[in-house]
Amino acid sequence: MRTSEAVEAYLAHVADVRRLSSATVRAYRADLAALVAAIGDRSLSDVEVDDLREWQWAATKAGQSKATAARRASTVRGLFGWAVEQGHLTHDPSQRMVSPKRGRTLPAVATADALEAVLRDAAALAEGGDALALRDHALLEVLYGSGARVSEVCGLDLDDVDHERRTLRLRGKGDKERVVPYGLPAERALQAYLVRSRPVLQARAQSPTPDEGQSARPAVRPVRPAPGAERAVFLGAKGARLGPRAVHTLVSRTLAPRVGVEALGPHALRHSAATHLLDGGADLRAVQEILGHASLGTTQIYTHVSAERLREAYRLAHPRA
User: Fold this and answer.
1) Which residue from 156, 233, 256, 259 has the least number of CB within 10 angstroms?
2) Which residues participate in catalysis according to the annotation?
3) Tens of pLDDT along 156-214?
4) Distance separating alpha carbons of residues 230 and 237, to the nearest angstrom
5) Model pTM score
6) For 4, what's the count of Cα atoms within 13 Å in the CB-facing half-sphere?
7) Residue 286 phi/psi, 5° resolution?
């Protein structure tokens, strides 16, 4: 079996059998395509550990980060481990690869006061009745109020929301489902968006908007929403399901003036939600369930964030610090 054939078979395995997310499969594909390009599309049984090490070394000289190198090594180990299990190989050369240790970095976290100001500003803009302002306010409240990943919020359908119990049914990594609660402010913003904004955005998918200064041209076909857009909770400006990139742009633009550049991106809201839950006395395992972490060890990083905040408060306030 040639290396490229093994890669395709392995990607099919992780997608169909292990049911990893499409984003993870894309990342695996990119990593393994880089490997094939570097070592050549030879027989998989001819690949030796020296080939893998040379590939690693070339990437390191090109400026590859430790985190990327560790991820790529893990991907390659997955490929060769699968090949041995399937009987395509008798030995696994990737077991002798060395992965760089990733430095432990604490996630960027916004203070509760800073986020309160961000959400207050978003609510003030939404009061004007603009469809996008109403959507943006609801989106920010749901992201922070549920601690969900941006992909999970973008994938929400209308029947995933239980307004009576104030819970969301989220589809996380590997298509695993979980139900998480969200707060009353998020419910109010979500209801306002669904009643006053979503129908407006949905209607935009049915009729084209002429350019400024030009008359409407009947020959122009209306924009078709993406499949499933009629069920999507959050819609874009043209009526299609809202995508992660648009959410990242929105959150970055909104958080930057209040929080600072280090906290940009939707994941900053997830980090902040987790840290604030723990600061408020939430049980670590409950936070693990809310975030959808497979391992409690992943959630424990937020205890370090809280400890850092306590140390900083102590340093600033205690006379003997």
Assistant:
1) 256
2) 149, 173, 267, 270, 293, 302
3) 999 999 999 999 999 887 778 899 999 999 999 999 999 999 999 999 876 554 443 44
4) 14
5) 0.69
6) 8
7) -65, -40
